[in-house]
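Re: the 230-residue chain
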Amino acid sequence: MTEISLKEILLYEDDDLVAINKPSGVLSIEDGYDTDKYNLRTILKRTYGHIWTVHRLDKDTSGVIIFAKNQEAHRQLNLSFMNRDSEKNYRSIVYGFPIWDSYEIKLPLKVNGDRKHRTIYDPVNGKPALTKIIRLFNTDFYTYMDIFPSTGLTHQIRAHLSTIGLPILGDKLYWRCCEINKDSGPEQLVFFLHAFSLKFFHPSSKVPMLITAPLPFRFSEELINLKLKK
């Protein structure tokens, strides 16, 4: 793993919080079994000392993630996320194409629901989960979309999209239609889910904040390759 330069991934900071454009392939926080694994919070501690986790992104998901610099900011941000005063906007490339322009997925999900520790659709024991998706552009085989999860279950977006037959490009864990052929092309080397923007109220001033993370180069390149961008 190449050492990350904090300067290159810093999106915003003030006395209360720091916003980072997390690269794909990096853990958000320390691994529970191996605390020496490369992770974002450990990198931030080198500069800021103690840092508080507000939310997380999957290892392979890139994009906006924020950390609190003090306990009160952490408390206020946690309340905001818990009360759903924040809005998360993801961008993704998925297999398949929908016939609708927008759709709300309201399928209950059970975290760690099978032997592969996936989050699965479970109408009996699952927790309520809501994900809104908007089609931005599509071809006969792929779709570029906006995603707005209203709830925050582990792997919610991945599970919801896979369940309705639109698995994320590069998501080997939730590809349920068939086994992915390892030689099927370079697109399988990257996971195309990006936390594009985050709206929330500042923990001290209560001013509305909008933090946006530009798409990774490989993501933008794939949009052109797949003819998903004019």
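The chain has one domain: 6-225.
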